[in-house]
Amino acid sequence: MGTGRRMGTKQGVPAPLDESKISSLKKRKAGGADAPKAAPKRRRSDADEAASKKAAPKKKKVAAAPAKVEKKASKKAVPVPMSDDDEEMEDDEFGDLDGISEGSMDSDDQVEGLSDLEDDDSVVDSDEEGHARGAMFSDDEDSDAEERLTAANIEGLSRKLDAAQQEEEEQAEQELQEAQMQTNIAAPDVFADENQQQGLAPDLQLLRQRITDTIRILGDLKTLGQPGRSRTDYVDLLLDDICTYYGYTRFLAEKLFNLFTPMEAFAFFEANETPRPVVIRTNTLRTNRRSLAQALINRGVVLEPVGKWSKVGLQVFESPVPLGATPEYLAGHYILQAASSFLPVMALAPQPNERVLDMASAPGGKTTYMSALMRNTGCVIANDASKPRAKGLIGNIHRLGCKNTIVTHMDARTAFPKAMGGFDRVLLDAPCTGTGVISKDPGVKTSKNERDFLAIPHMQRQLLLAAIDSVDHASKTGGYIVYSTCSVTVEENEAVVQYVLRKRPNVKIVDTGLGGFGSPGFLSYMGKTFDPKMALTRRYFPHRENVDGFYVCKLKKTAVTPAPKAEDAESRSAGRKKSRSASASAASSDDESVDKTPIVDENGHAADFEGGAFSAFEDPEDAERIARAERNRLRRKGLNPKGVLNKPKKTKAEAEQKTSKTKEPSQEEQTKTVASKKSTNEPKGEKKTVTKGKEDKKPVTADQEAKKPVKAKGEKKDKKSAKKATK
Ligand SMILES: C[S@@+](CC[C@H](N)C(=O)[O-])C[C@H]1O[C@@H](n2cnc3c(N)ncnc32)[C@H](O)[C@@H]1O
């Protein structure tokens, strides 16, 4: 059988979740020895293919419906990275590759394939070449040759895969039968051992069994539920078991559980226990995908194109060399980048010669992709608030040869568009809770609390408003904003977008251009209804697309941001006063994020805050908001706002007086001070070239003068305090 047939089927876009996938997930999990979460994973990998099979019936049962063939297809779509511990998983994953002709694993075969390529770029080995070619390869690459290259590479796996294939089919058949049997037997009393386990280490095998039993019962509560037990009883039990089994806090487990049906939630939690495929992105500023693949295959790397949806991604299955230290890596031919993180940049689609802002850019996977798509023309402003992360960003920019990129280090909530505006496109890959990348960072399971789910969406809203205001709606080529997170919660995604739609009627949701890959954004959630166009936003899930959980929304700015109307401001102010005692934090979070966002003028440039088209934050209402923001900021820092802010304030005049008093040294002292300031402060000051000019003009109180070494944040605070003091 030809290699191509296998490739043609294998490389397709991962299939959306179907029930069979849940079954296959379970199976992969059973083999996956290196899951991030220790206990359950270990348990499954050593104890029990058998045990997990027993537990599986529900899952299997759900999975049972699709034919065996379909089950295989779904596996195909979810290859996982290889490691020594993943042998079994790999076999499982590639069980679908049975179409590949029996090939030896030796390098001769690969070299042979490659030398063919050198001679003839047009070689095709696909049985379904017409289909596969068009979809799989870059427009600017020779599809046939690349296909051949990939074939040569994949051939190395085929012997092992073919052997595994048969075993897998048998296993699938057996599971299917078990599942069918299980469907017909009476539901067990899942509450029976509820008390027995208290105080004892949980038997994970039993726990898993009970999880699957409970899910099955919830699927048909009327028939399978016990009299006197409500849906809530079962859901409570299930959530408790999920927390124990997977190690989530109850708070987070419930939040994630509520996104899905119980059965799909189970698939999601399971998928978070297995790593996603290792993917590299070809840096087209330095090479092309075919040459890169060829070079890596020569080093023994087993890879293939990541899917039809990307022209630059390569999925790596096996590598005898560390991918972060190959000569190609060091020469900037590729970057290790999760597949899902290609998507926001693809949605943004930056064009050559545009002016683009990446608001939260470190470590630069997306920045460098944008730079490559723009072919090193135009300008990318790559900003990040974190200095250590910005260093990594700079490293990547240099390594990948991005010459159209400027790095800034500012808080994007307030810096844009004040410092810079009028961008053709803005990417906001927002800081988030990371609920989409739990397989990479299992710490999320226990570290994120209710407070995070208030504070982080609040920051996301502020950032997105600033992103919108930084775009030039009249851009001839753009006027787009892409908002993305690696989180799956509604609070951080649809709810943030809905909020900005309300606050910025001059933007609308547009199609991401990512095709059918992913699922539509939610139109409603927990009683909240969202804009009907929310369906144009895309969600990605580990258990559906086998990529990190991700969210992508594309917005088009259609007009200049209107200045807030006076009556709106008044009513908001009145409303806030009323509700303050009841829900101070919620009110403040909403108001703050609106009014703190700078506004651009007709030309997309930062408004002249000293008397331009839009006024600065001069209303009494603004002062109140600024004060509230300040209190919140101090609280976040662990300071008591009352203690800090109730210190007697000095008027501007007093401050100046004091400053001038304290700053009237002798000529000699003056010379010394200047000299020492030059030697200590100047190099640091230079890094802030964008804001420095403005900082110099700020009125400074004596207190603030004393605190001067504090950099950007402190300076912003000073500015606000000074304004407040003035008022
Ligand atoms: C999801 S990461 C960005 C990843 C990056 N886009 C990439 O593809 O490599 C979010 C980034 O936001 C930065 N960040 C957090 N708060 C910020 C703020 N107020 N302004 C700018 N950047 C911020 C964090 O330092 C972090 O690097």
TrEMBL record:
S-adenosyl-L-methionine binds at A360, S361, A362, P363, G364, G365, K366, D384, D411, D429. Keywords: Coiled coil, Methyltransferase, Nucleus, Ribosome biogenesis, RNA-binding, S-adenosyl-L-methionine, Transferase. SUPFAM superfamilies: S-adenosyl-L-methionine-dependent methyltransferases (SSF53335). Residues 154-184 form a coiled coil. GO terms for cellular component: nucleolus. It is found in: Nucleus, Nucleolus. InterPro entries: MeTrfase_RsmB-F_NOP2_cat, MeTrfase_RsmB-F_NOP2_dom, Nop2p, RCMT, RCMT_NOP2, RsmB/NOL1/NOP2-like_CS, SAM-dependent_MTases_sf. This is Nucleolar protein 2. Residues 268-558 form the SAM-dependent MTase RsmB/NOP-type domain. One of its GO terms (molecular function) is rRNA (cytosine-C5-)-methyltransferase activity. Residues 594-608, 623-632, 651-671, 679-718 have a biased composition (Basic and acidic residues). Residues 1-147, 562-727 are annotated as: Disordered. Residues 83-96, 105-128 have a biased composition (Acidic residues). The keyword Transcription regulation does not apply. GO terms for biological process: maturation of LSU-rRNA; rRNA base methylation. Its main location: nucleus. The active site is at C486. It holds the Pfam family Methyltr_RsmB-F. Belongs to the class I-like SAM-binding methyltransferase superfamily. RsmB/NOP family. The lineage of its organism: Eukaryota, Fungi, Dikarya, Ascomycota, Pezizomycotina.
